């Protein structure tokens, strides 16, 4: 029989977020972090255990989490997030559609990428996600899928998941979260990929715990940017903030698809680096090896790209004053090749007081950065409510939604204007 709730709504979500974001933690530590009394924490953990969202275990001898006064009582139980409750993290690129199943405990349980022979349209991407997700869930039927998060290389209206402009995909004003939710029978949220990458690096990567950061990622669809300010995703009025790939860096530069001249993503591009090095577009390890050879023709391209990148970072610093700048994708490879040169060039053209604490670092999450960020979207409802509403993938995946299937998109008639903030923020809101 289901347990009758005896705790304040929202506190279960607080506990679940702590365990999800921070990893295994003792009940004693949960009591300290939440400021709740021990009996309340015990009840909250019990509710989460009953739903299968967390598990408890006694700490091993000498292990962490055994907080207690010497000789008093039993060691505090360790609370772990469930490894079988997962979010489907979707990434859409010009040449591939990928889906990963990311568990509440942070492990990537499985992943599959479906290469695309042509740039996928929105309907094509919905079909591809349905196929891939069905394959993944067939391989692991015991996993409970609670939601879907989609990382899109473009401008996304976060309250309804409409892709306003994804130029490299050729999408403009394309509904995506809604049709995908109807197809899957699962809650679906979509957001800009770099915004998700910034949040993932803040939660789990190179900028863990940093409240003010800028993230720049270089990939097949150009350069995306994301900003975290005062510990919150900086999304702007409609969720479009952070388009740092289109910051101005060169007066005599290349004309960009956005209509401007000298945008960062035209002056520093993966395509230019892979062309001069002769490496495959998606092989960053090969790119790093080729850059290490130090050929003159390659270094001339590197010099131009480093200059453009340093100017873009300077612009970002003067605008948002970050403590950390995180570089992902091919930009991380470029940083690894030139070492301190990027930071030195930035400091040389930036107001000195604004670089006192500045660090420019490579992304720590590697290929998982967008996956982890998209998974946070997939967990948004669960982490907001602390309640498991539905699990599993309906039989309708791969075909039209069957009668009676539960469909949820990012649009709710009772939402307020606060819901226009980046949907990532909901994943950690009490």
Automatic annotation (TrEMBL):
State the similarity comment: Belongs to the ROK (NagC/XylR) family.
Check the record and name the InterPro entries matching this protein: ATPase_NBD, HTH_MarR-typ, ROK, WH-like_DNA-bd_sf, WH_DNA-bd_sf
Can you give the residue ranges of the HTH marR-type domain? 9-57
**Annotated Pfam families:** MarR_2, ROK
> So which residues are the signal peptide here?
none
Q: What is the name of this protein?
A: ROK family transcriptional regulator
Residue ranges annotated as compositionally biased, kind Basic and acidic residues, are 412-430
Question: What species is this protein from?
Answer: Curtobacterium citri
């Amino acid at each position: 029989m289901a347990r009758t709730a005896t705790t304040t709504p929202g506190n279960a979500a607080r506990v679940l977020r702590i365990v999800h974001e921070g990893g295994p933690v003792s009940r004693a530590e949960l009591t300290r972090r939440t400021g709740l009394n021990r009996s309340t924490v015990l009840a909250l953990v019990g509710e989460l255990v009953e739903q299968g969202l967390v598990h408890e275990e006694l700490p091993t001898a000498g292990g962490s989490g055994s907080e207690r006064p010497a000789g008093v009582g039993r060691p505090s139980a360790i609370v772990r997030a469930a490894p079988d409750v997962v979010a489907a993290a979707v990434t859409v690129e010009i040449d591939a559609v990928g889906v990963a199943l990311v568990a509440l405990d942070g492990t990537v349980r499985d992943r599959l990428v479906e290469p695309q022979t042509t740039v996928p349209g929105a309907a094509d991407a919905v079909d591809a996600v349905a196929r891939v997700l069905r394959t993944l869930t067939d391989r692991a039927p015991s996993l409970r899928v609670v939601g879907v998060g989609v990382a899109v290389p473009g401008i996304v209206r976060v309250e309804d998941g409409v892709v306003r402009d994804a130029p490299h995909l050729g999408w403009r004003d394309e509904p995506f979260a809604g049709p995908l939710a109807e197809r899957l029978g699962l809650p679906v949220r979509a957001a800009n990929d770099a915004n998700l990458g910034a949040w993932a690096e803040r939660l789990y990567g190179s900028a863990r715990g940093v409240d003010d950061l800028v993230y720049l990622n270089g990939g097949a669809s150009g350069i995306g940017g994301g900003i975290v300010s005062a510990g919150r995703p900086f999304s702007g009025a409609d969720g479009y903030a952070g388009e740092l790939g289109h910051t101005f860096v060169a007066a005599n530069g290349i004309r960009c698809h956005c209509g401007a001249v000298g945008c960062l993503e035209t002056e520093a591009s993966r395509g230019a680096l892979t062309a001069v090095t002769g490496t495959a577009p998606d092989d960053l390890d090969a790119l790093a090896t080729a850059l290490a050879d130090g050929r003159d023709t390659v270094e001339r391209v590197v010099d131009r790209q480093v200059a453009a990148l340093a100017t873009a970072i300077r612009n970002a610093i003067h605008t948002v004053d970050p403590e950390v700048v995180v570089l992902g994708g091919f930009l991380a490879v470029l940083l690894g090749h030139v070492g301190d040169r990027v930071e030195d060039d930035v400091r040389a053209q930036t107001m000195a007081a604004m670089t006192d604490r500045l660090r420019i670092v490579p992304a720590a999450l590697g290929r998982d950065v967008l996956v982890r960020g998209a998974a946070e979207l997939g967990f948004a409802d669960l982490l907001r409510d602390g309640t498991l509403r539905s699990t599993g993938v309906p039989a309708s995946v791969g075909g039209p939604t069957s009668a009676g299937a539960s469909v949820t998109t990012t649009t709710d008639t009772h939402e307020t204007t606060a819901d226009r903030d980046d949907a990532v923020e909901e994943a950690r809101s009490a």
